[in-house]
Amino acid sequence: MKTAHRRRWKQISLKEVAMRLDYKSIIVKRYLLHLSLREIAEQTGGSKSGVSEFLRAFEQAEGISYPLPPGITNEGIFLNNADITEIRFT
Known about the structure:
By secondary structure, the protein is mainly α. It has helices at about 15-20, 25-30, 35-45, 50-60, 75-80. The chain is about 45% helix and about 0% strand. Helix 2 packs antiparallel against helix 3 (about 35-45). The protein is globular, with a radius of gyration of 16 Å.
């Protein structure tokens, strides 16, 4: 007799999902190292479309640009860019 296996899903906030991408790393890889979207996605564990959408939102953000301000964190990048909340992370 088989028993039903139930997964327990932890509810997480959009911010926690968003913070799974290493924004600083993506920005450095794109603007300093000039890597392709595919290369960045492979190296960061994200999807090519997720990296592309993040960079598009970053480029359109008014409060932040490259080069990044000294000491900025991933959370600081997230908070400075309202469009990030619209990005797909799969």
